[in-house]
Amino acid sequence: MKLSACIVIYNGFDEALKAAQTILQYTRRYPLTLYLVDNASPDGSGEKLRAAAASGALAAGAGQQVVLHCRTENGGFGTGHNMVLPELDSDFHFILNPDIQLTADTLSDLADWMAQHPDAVMARPSLVFPDGSPQQLPLRRCALRPMIYRQLPCLKFWAKYNDAYLMKDADLSKPTSIEFCTGSFSGVRTSTFRAVGGFDENYFMYVEDADLTQKMLTQGKAYLVPQYTAIHAWHRAAHRSLKPALWQAGNLMRYFKKWGFRW
């Protein structure tokens, strides 16, 4: 079995380097190609990653290779990940954020699990904060009320809709079919990812992972596989500043137009 993984970087060299190092350190069971795509970072992250690879700070082990692409313009999250689509020859591919860190061979574990479940075209592990506390991420299709509540948690009377978005009514201690696989850490069956054309590049940032999940679900199922875990810093920029929040709102409208409105 062959694995591949891609991290798209926009600034934040130190964090991206740590993510790449843990992926190379722990992914040992199967051959791995790790793609690093710098989205024209103004802080020089792309050149710093190139220097790290040359110096040995980003060293590939046996059966591994690191491929670095430095874009001349920032085309957004999906465009960055799609850049490697023509190069993929793996069985399973992993879409990873630069704020992910591994503490075990989670990529191989998820690949093995998906190989044993032919209906699985997409999967993710449990994600935790750096202090080990669990993260609650969306698992059901995007809907308007939980998205508003997540921006305005003062609307306590809508908390129940967010609970449904997080599937708090389900037993999430075992592998569970889901409708939303977060772009911070998604494993995909490479052949299916290619068949659906990767990400919709009309989404510059935010909601593109929800859109990709719906595309993948036309070909099979997506799963939360909670027995495997990774660290996710989860910076949540859309909850802290206006511009990302506006991007998210605009993309949510695009998503509803494409996949149907949910209140």
UniProtKB/TrEMBL annotation:
It holds the Pfam family Glycos_transf_2. Gene3D superfamilies: Spore Coat Polysaccharide Biosynthesis Protein SpsA, Chain A. Keywords: Glycosyltransferase, Transferase. InterPro entries: Glyco_trans_2-like, Nucleotide-diphossugar_trans. Belongs to the glycosyltransferase 2 family. It comes from the Bacteria. Pathway: Cell wall biogenesis; cell wall polysaccharide biosynthesis. Residues 4-195 form the Glycosyltransferase 2-like domain. It comes from Faecalibacterium hattorii. This is Glycosyl transferase family 2. Transmembrane segments: none annotated. One of its GO terms (molecular function) is glycosyltransferase activity.
